[in-house]
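Minutes, project check-in
Item: structure for the 287-residue chain
Input as provided by the requester:
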Amino acid sequence: MTPLMTLDEFAESQRADGYSVSTIRVRVRCVRGIARFAGVTESQLNIDHVIGYFAARPLGPWSRRTYLNHLRAFGRWLGVDLIRGIRKPAAPRSTPHPLQEDELTRLTTATHGVHKTWVLLGAFCGLRAHETAKLAREDLSTLDDGTAILRVTGKGGRTDTIPVPPVVMKALDLTGHGRFWDGTRPESVSRTVAGIAAKIGIRMRYHQLRHRYGTMVYRSSGRDLLMTQRLMRHASPATTAGYAAVADDRVHVIVHDLPGADPGASRPKGRRTGSNRCLSCRQEARA
């Protein structure tokens, strides 16, 4: 079996398992790079080669976890344990960085046609760049009540359905069949939107539109974490919790309302301040 055949067959098996084109591409690149470093073919890789690679090229926690996931998948297909005994770092806590509302307004004003549609899909549907790039007309359908829904196949081949707001539907060209932007690569979506943003003084990544969607969903849902998880299509609620931390501005109010937190604050005479009531009761009374 030649190295090319090995990787081609591995890629084919990954496609059969439902993995995205981008995931397969980076897995193949990872395996090829480690094999090249070790001076062996991909089919000859073993645990010693992997350990040697990690020892020579220290990686950050996220990169290390990603490489180990790729190697586990390739090793499982090859019938060899390539990560035995290698410590997998805990997932670093990731803080979302949503695009601010004023920046989103400027960006939607500066974009037109296809590029504006890409922005709206990220900001109002929470699509990732690779999901936007491969979007097809057949992924859209309409419920009996007229609600438009979108079927999205995201990370790990998982498929979910999400509602599509009118602002997005109006921007989509629904005539014809197949993909909206056939041949468009995820990198093109990301770079194009980031490039337009840079021209108007906004430094951003396309994924920040998804972050904006997540934080706004959390606020609009009345801080419903499970609803946010469902619409963000997260496998773990721990991931969604990061959006709650960013979007929940009540923490400032709560801390400043603690008894004695602001000694200089004046209290109206003759009024019951409510300081003897529990904090949650006072918050409910204000709501």
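Outcome recorded: The beta strands are 140-142, 148-153, 159-163.
No further action items on this chain.
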